[in-house]
Design goal:
By secondary structure, the chain is mostly helical. 70% of the residues lie in helices and 3% in strands. It has one domain. The chain has 20 helices and 4 strands. It has a two-stranded antiparallel sheet with strand order 1-2. It has a two-stranded antiparallel ribbon with strand order 3-4.
């Protein structure tokens, strides 16, 4: 049944201008790889999973996603942060045996697959009418603004180097044309790295100590109803986040990926990728805002570049020295770049509202303000007052932040704008 949904070859279609020059494509793919690397290996480092397996499963998961989405969506899948708390909970309850967390993630991926088949049956059009620009625009703004604090935190290691890195990237984007402009992120990272190296902020000992070639620590899953009950419900919390990420990607590219190839296909790709990760011992996969930011800056949307980046990620799982070298990139360098990437995502949200000529009448303003206030303010309220704004699923899982804000926005808009138009 799944095979009927996921049959098209990744070569069948693509979005954006094809990059025919092989060397240019390799460089652009490396740029995407660098953008996603830090966050993808951070999740296994925090949970105890193997970083090499995470890279391998992210690469294979991305290729699975592209197969399921007909090669149309320029997306890279990396380690999902949403699963960190429940993985740690299972790790504690099962005496450090993360194989039980893998079993829970497989079931979570299976839920995604089931939901994708349900959406295929009822039709994507029914889902689309609940996602007008007054809902989608603020969702994208929230995604970008919620990521910016993590970029500032990384930059705080050395604001001067972070600032120089950011300035180089912005200068190239403003004053340079052609292919060099598309490499603004990679060039800025190289400049930031060189400055950091001579400033004594780079420790290369990990490179010399790493083996050139090693097999990732693959591990088979174990299943227990308790672990499944803890991990599987996370899907409910990240479903709206998936819609937001795919919508953001589409707004950047100028395509409606919810409609074509369809939300059912993107969910299927995400679900199958997460199932694969659970089988081999990696963290659950999700779409990455870092790579969407790269698309927004470079204006190159060729999905084959993302697939090449996925192949490089798979190779990194086995070539330890290269992976070790990438870990030596200082946080402040990645922080400076991330500030630009995440800001671009928020600007896409603003452009979505503007380009669709959303009317700022009372009903639309209520919808947009609610999404922004809940999406951006809930974490502040929790930190300051210890109050969690959201919907509890169980003791460990709550629908909060963007997921809760998006859900409220969709419901409010359905009530206030029953005709489903932005012009109401």
């Amino acid at each position: 049944m799944v095979e009927n949904v996921c049959t098209a070859s990744a070569a069948k279609a693509s979005t954006g201008t094809k990059v025919k020059n092989g060397s240019k494509k390799v460089i652009l793919a490396l740029q995407h790889l660098i953008a996603m690397f830090g966050a993808t290996v951070l999740v296994p480092m925090l949970t105890g999973l193997d970083p090499s397996v995470a890279l391998f499963s992210a690469g294979v998961g991305t290729l699975i996603f592209h197969l399921c989405t007909e090669g149309k969506v320029p997306v890279f899948l990396g380690s999902s942060f949403a699963f960190i708390p429940v993985i740690l909970t299972v790790k504690e309850l099962y005496n450090g045996d993360l194989a039980y967390a893998q079993g829970g993630m497989i079931i979570a991926g299976l839920i995604y697959v089931i939901v994708s088949l349900f959406i295929k049956k009822i039709g994507v059009e029914r889902i689309q009418k609940y996602l007008p620009p007054q809902v989608v625009g603020p969702m994208i703004v929230v995604i970008g603004l919620n990521l910016i604090p993590s970029a500032i935190d990384m930059a705080s290691n050395n604001f001067l180097i972070a600032g120089i890195t950011l300035l180089v990237a912005l200068s190239i984007n403003m004053f340079v044309k052609g292919f060099i402009k598309q490499l603004s992120i990679l060039i800025a990272v190289v400049v930031g790295y060189i400055i950091s190296y001579f400033a004594g902020a780079v420790d290369t000992s990990a490179v010399s100590q790493a083996a050139f070639f090693s097999i990732p620590n693959f591990r088979l899953p174990k299943f227990d109803i308790g672990a499944i009950a803890i991990i599987a419900p996370v899907v409910l919390a990240v479903f709206m986040e998936h819609i937001g990420d795919i919508t953001t990607n589409g707004q950047v590219v100028g395509k409606n990926f919810i409609e074509d190839p369809g939300l059912n296909r993107t969910l299927l790709g995400d679900g199958l990728a997460t199932i694969f990760a659970g089988i081999v011992g990696g963290p659950a996969n999700t779409t990455y805002g870092e790579n969407t930011g790269v698309l927004a800056i470079t204006k190159n949307y060729d999905p084959s570049i993302l697939r090449l980046a996925a192949v490089f990620a798979v190779a990194l799982g086995f070539i330890s020295k290269i992976g070790a070298f990438l870990t030596t990139i200082p946080k402040e360098v990645m922080g400076g770049i991330s500030l630009m990437l995440f800001s671009m995502i928020s600007l896409v949200g603003v452009q979505t509202i503007k380009n669709n000529k959303v009317k700022f009448n009372a009903r639309n303003v209520i919808v947009m303000v609610s999404i922004l206030a809940l999406g951006l303010g809930s974490s502040i309220v929790e930190k300051k007052f210890g109050i969690t704004i959201g919907i509890p699923i169980n003791e460990d899982i709550k629908i909060t932040g963007l997921s809760f804000a998006a859900l409220v926005g969709v419901i409010l808009n359905a009530i206030l704008n029953r005709k489903g138009t932005a012009e109401n």
